From TrEMBL:
Transmembrane segments: none
Superkingdom, taxonomy of origin: Bacteria
Protein name from the UniProt record: Transcriptional regulator
Organism: Microvirgula aerodenitrificans
Lineage of source species: Bacteria, Pseudomonadati, Pseudomonadota, Betaproteobacteria, Neisseriales
CDD domains to which the protein is assigned, alphabetical: HTH_XRE (cd00093)
Record GO terms (molecular function): DNA binding
A Pfam family recorded for this sequence: HTH_92
Domain RsaL-like HTH: residue ranges: 21-63
InterPro entries from the UniProt entry: Cro/C1-type_HTH, HTH_RsaL-like, Lambda_DNA-bd_dom_sf
Amino acid sequence: MAVGSRKPFVRKLFDNSDVIRIREGVGLTQKQFWSPLGISQSGGSRYERGYYIPKPVRILLNLLYVRHVDIEALNEDDLKIVHYLRDQHPELYASLAKMIKRKG
């Protein structure tokens, strides 16, 4: 990888069929599923019917429904630390990520 280039924060971003499968898997209505992301039921319905899902929304979906991160508890400083580690100390970032995965 070239110096200065960044690995994607989320390796697998969702497509529309993934979102439907996840929502149905957790047993939530469209309103319950999309509301924590600040998206209306009708907006979520459009995404599920095939409209383009913006990358920030896909990242939030990954954090909330796959990684089970309490996104309300995150603050700007936490995110700055993550970005700093990933960009300035990629080996440490990778090592920490492996440790977290092992703890499951």
